[in-house]
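Before relying on records like the one below, remember that each one covers exactly one chain. Contacts with other chains, cofactors or solvent are not represented anywhere in the record.
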Amino acid sequence: MSDFHSGYKKQLVGAAEALFGVPGVRPKRRVGPMRRVGRPRHVPLLAVIALGALLLAAAALAATQIIGFGTPVTARRAPGRERPSASTGIGIPVAGAKSAPTSAQLLAISLPDPAGGLSWGMRIVRTTRGLLCLQIGRLLDGRLGVLGQDGEFNDDGLFHELPAAVLDPDMCFQPTDRVLLSDAGLPAAGELQSPTTSCQASWEPRTRPSEPRHCPAGDERLVAFGVLGPHAVSVSYRARGQLHTVATAGGLGAYLIVLRSPPDPSHNIPVLGGTSGPLDSFPMGPGPGSVVSRIVFRFGHRLCQTGFDRPPGGLPLCTKSIAHTAVPIPKVPRGLHTRVALKTRKVPGGYDLDVTFTAPATVENASTTYGVQVATPSDPACGIGGVWGQSVERDVARGEALRVKVFVGQRPGCHGVAQGRVILGAEPLPGAFLGTVRRAETIGRFSFALP
């Protein structure tokens, strides 16, 4: 037995002596035939409660001592992606109330791991650019973090806390969106940061020695999570042929599912990115390839459902007429116009475009963005109307000069005129192609020849 466990046992014995006034170890006393045995001593209820609390506290202490804490998780950035600030990218966590350093909210979700050990949890973080970001990981002593295993932190076996400021841009979205995300082959360590993980799924081929090793057998997880809005009641999913239903948590309709990952990709499990849509859009996934098979919503006194796994004679399908959900649409002024200047440079595989223009309106958060889109000719040589683009992921002042660089690919034999436009519209959903926006207004146009 370790020194820690020996000391832990001594603490419990000492607590018993203090509470009950009896030694921790007492030899058996022989009772003669004429000896009168006294009544069992009554133990006060408060003493029992106090001992129970001591046991729970000691167990929590034991967990932290056995695992131990390591250095916190640090942010990882994809190549070419700048560090976010209060006015750029996804922003940074907003200041919390009173003494709280951020507005991060650890949800009342504690999901057992399929192989045991620390539970899984989920946190929501609000940013200075008006976005909601999700974080998931393992739970220890009310903290969210990553375990030092599966290649994380050199397999040190410690718990590494995940700070609220370490955000994954692919898990940040508009507060008015419903988002269903999932990832198959995730390491049991709990690491979900893009762009890389410490080990890759067993069915993914390793083409280069520099690529992450395969996750150990039994340490691959299928994780599905998201937020479905304040009207969401529950989500359902199937595992081993059985239907399971879990209630959503918090006012945003959050959910989390953790399963053992399938041993091969034939199960048609989606990757991170999943399904997204505005709160008022019905019918909305999930589709047959989704982890979540059914979602139940409550609008007023009416319940409805959406998804592909609906029991016959069950709840009615959710529609806009049932939802009556008002979704704020980013205000994009109509009739805006700007002059566009263009410079092109031939590079291997295509052209680098340097697009400059003056912003005709202010952008104050991530709900709207300026972007540049370029469509190549639609013919067999060029492909079926390929679109290239890039968005301006920061706050912009009215009258500010903007410069956007876009690469446009050119296939062999592809010739003609490429059409481009400058747009102002709603930011893309998580995982959307760069330069794509929703509800966009065209504020300028340009074109150039592909010789």
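The longest strand covers residues 438-450.
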